[in-house]
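Run log // design_07
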């Protein structure tokens, strides 16, 4: 789990104070985490006192989830096609039209 410490806070204008070194360290930790695992472990976002860092982590986790979801969807659609399922049947499973599935997943 990433351990980044900072004393970030809001200034008098209620705008976030940004520290380049902090975000570079955060980026390095995220990069290391990605390289160490196919799927980074979800973390308790409350562990970081910096709301900007928590938001960046949340966005990063969403992107990882979306990539994996897309990859697995492609695999499953391809498997269903190999097993003889029609585009229409697959579309019904995905709550979209068969034509939309065909356009998106045919090669």
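design_07 sequence
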């Amino acid at each position: 789990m990433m351990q980044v410490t900072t004393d970030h806070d809001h200034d008098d204008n209620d705008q976030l104070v940004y520290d380049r070194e902090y975000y570079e360290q955060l980026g390095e930790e995220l990069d290391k985490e990605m390289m160490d695992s196919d799927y980074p472990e979800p973390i308790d976002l409350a562990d970081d006192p910096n709301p900007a860092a928590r938001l960046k982590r949340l966005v990063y986790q969403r992107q990882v989830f979306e990539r994996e979801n897309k990859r697995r969807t492609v695999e499953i659609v391809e498997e269903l096609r190999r097993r003889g399922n029609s585009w229409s049947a697959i579309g019904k499973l995905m709550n979209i039209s068969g034509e939309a599935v065909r356009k998106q997943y045919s090669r």
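The first helix runs from residue 20 to 36.
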